[in-house]
């Protein structure tokens, strides 16, 4: 929301001080005094809004707007994904897929296999949806082989993260390519190898280290398969098709949108009924809903449960994730307060004139905005918008433009922390406290950003010689 009739009068210094103090207070409340994250986020959001000078009558609307907008994108995905994941788990489907992966790649390479599968699933699927669909498989492999959840979970979560941040047709890189007038096809050819190499070094190898460093049990969030289901599990092909179905449906949306942007699909075709139907079927909540019904029909009633038993399975799936949804929404609330208070705009104004190379400026500006207000999308689009004029004037070639997009995207992913709703999603799904999440997920996201930026900078230098 945009506050009408109010302008921020505080300067950049005080606003940055408020942001730093609010984050520090939040961490102290949660880590030192063990205040529940949901309550602490609401309290600190309220205090931050008041300190930033937001009119008293507008404080609660600002809080509820940030909370509601986050839930609008997260609640449906997590709720439907949790029910789908519960069915895959309880039916024995997750164990079937876990066994197949372990038998094919071996026990030592199971985390690698899970990560590669997530890279494939992550091509069209957004971070949140892909993660909740893959979690039952991650937990099933972890229970079979033993070890920390981070050994299996970080390569998977990192795979969805790198694909979502760097690779078209995800909205972030597509939006940045539009600002910079970069060729999406060339961006895809460049971003895919950078994303894969970045994943291997910063997600897979770091995940192996973190798995040894932090011994965390496999969470029971999505339950386990029952004995009857394990005696009569679904076929491997059935499980794979269920997991592929949302990917294929979502690709209808992202693929058509990319073709439309590229001009392959004409404006007249984009207004036709068939186009609208396919776009709707490919919306992530719709795709997950369709997949849930297919999973119900093929796996939900196994083991003599019937539809009433399947209903009970779905009911039990929602209860554990309610805390995840609420805390994630509260994290979005906190980020929304930081944005509405003018902190992001103040940073943009102060950084836009920094006399450093554009490839470095894109990373720095996006990174500072990400740290300040939490949203990677806001950081990416704001930084790209600020640099668009300078990039156009520089007359870069197509490879340099692609490197610019990756640089800004790399800055937008670093330092996921308490003002990022994704931070809380990872924390609660993996059963980690805030301190451990900062030592693992925050570090991982920062490594992703730094390595991708270095690769983009190297590409930019090579491209300048062409």
Describe the protein.
- The chain has 466 residues and is mainly α.
- It folds into two domains: 12-60, no CATH class; 70-464, no CATH class.
- Helix content is 79%, strand content 0%.
- The chain contains 21 helices and no strands.
- The chain is globular, with a radius of gyration of 22 Å.
Please outline what is shown here.
It is built from 21 helices and no strands.
Task: Provide keyphrases for this structure.
466 residues, mainly alpha, 21 helices
The secondary structure category is: mainly alpha
Shape: globular
Measured by DSSP, the beta-strand proportion falls in under 5%
Q: Give the total of domains.
A: 2
Blueprint (SSEs and pairs):
Layout: H1 12-32, H2 37-51, H3 56-90, H4 93-105, H5 110-121, H6 127-145, H7 149-166, H8 171-180, H9 184-213, H10 227-231, H11 236-262, H12 267-270, H13 273-281, H14 284-300, H15 306-340, H16 343-351, H17 358-373, H18 376-394, H19 398-413, H20 421-429, H21 434-464
Helix pairs in contact: 1-2, 1-16, 2-3, 2-15, 3-6, 3-14, 3-15, 4-6, 4-11, 5-6, 5-7, 6-7, 7-9, 7-21, 8-18, 8-19, 9-19, 9-21, 11-13, 11-14, 15-20, 16-17, 17-18, 17-19, 18-19, 19-21, 20-21
